Amino acid sequence: MFAGKAHPADLAAQDLMRQITQIANQREFEGRVLLVEGYDLHLGRRLVAGVDVWLNNPIYPLEASGTSGMKAGINGTLNLSVLDGWWAEGNEDDNGWSIKPASEALDQYRRNREEARTLYELLQDCVIPLYYERGPLGYSPGWIALAKRSIASILPRFNSTRMLREYVERLYAPAARQGRAYAAEDFAVARDVAQWKARVRAAWPGVSLRRVDAPAKRLAFGSSLKVEIAARLNGLAPADVAVEVLLAPSPGAAPVVHALHCAGAATGDGEHRFDCELRPDLCGQLEYRIRAYPAHPRLTHPFETGLMCWV
User: 74, 125, 219, 228: which could join 212 in a potential S-S bond, CB 3.0 to 4.6 Å?
Assistant: First the structure.
């Protein structure tokens, strides 16, 4: 049984639904493959009530959220999903099953094959045996316990109350505070920030960084590395920019940010020196990059100017 809607711009999904309709109309599949039209909240409620396992297998990391899986979990349906979107946060190993994404370095065929193997192993070793471990009352006590655990772990965390609270705390309240700050003293702050942005945008094409120290290829654990940068700011003050080192254990991993501080006034060639003593608390091969971007204490977001310079 299939139900759902394809986005007007998603031609591949529209074509898939067209294929399902064609198969459902073939004589050998009449009454066996069904496409339910008019998907809406009412139909979604009926589907959730009749489902034991909610399979969600997007291509990692393209899942935007996964609210259907939240809705299913709240209603006692057990999630069997790729660790992406909401399920990466919601999975606790005892409230459903997770399909570990294959390495993104593999080609799409290999990734699909690896994740399909994981899915079938979970079905064979976990899902199906637990479902059919039925006691004298005709149902699986272990399955019911897992369904209750799913409800208890998902309902308090994935609901409209949390959504609205976080919208207020992270977006609406900060936006209101920023609006009041900009409007104070007859919009004096707003005018100051606007003038600063105009000055920064005019100067930024002439901003450049160069490495002054000699980078070390190896560093013993516990020792430090001095990072020193010469920044040509094209008329901007050191306080107008933030210079940082981003240190990560591997490409794509969340980096640890270390700030570089101005070490003195401009030299004769118009450059300012920035440095920091970098002491990594990580072992193994590390990747680091150095960047500078405009900084102002009244900005709503550190990167809102959209300007950045890398060494």
Answer: 228
How many whole angstroms from its chain centre is CA 215? Answer: 32
Q: Return d(Cα 114, Cα 101) in angstroms, integer.
A: 8
Dihedral sign for Cα 219, 222, 223, 227, please: positive
Residue type (1 letter), 302: P
Mean pLDDT of 76-100: 94
Same domain as 200, residue 143: no
Query: What are the tokens at 32?
Result: 């066996």
- pTM comes to 0.68
Could you tell me the pLDDT band of residue 48, with boundaries at 50, 70 and 90? confident
How confident is residue 267, by pLDDT bands cut at 50, 70 and 90?
Answer: low
Print the domain residue range for 216. Answer: 192-310
DSSP E strands, 120-240: 208-211, 225-232
- Count of domains in the chain? 2
Amino acid 268: pLDDT: 66
CATH of the domain at 248: 2.60.40
Q: Evaluate whether 127 touches 143 at the Cβ level (below 8 Å).
A: no
Residue 31's region, left for phi above 0, alpha for psi from -120 to 50, else beta, is left
DSSP 61-124: T-----HHHHHHHHTTPEEEEES-TTHHHH--SSSEEEEPPPPTTS-HHHHHHHHHHHHHHHII
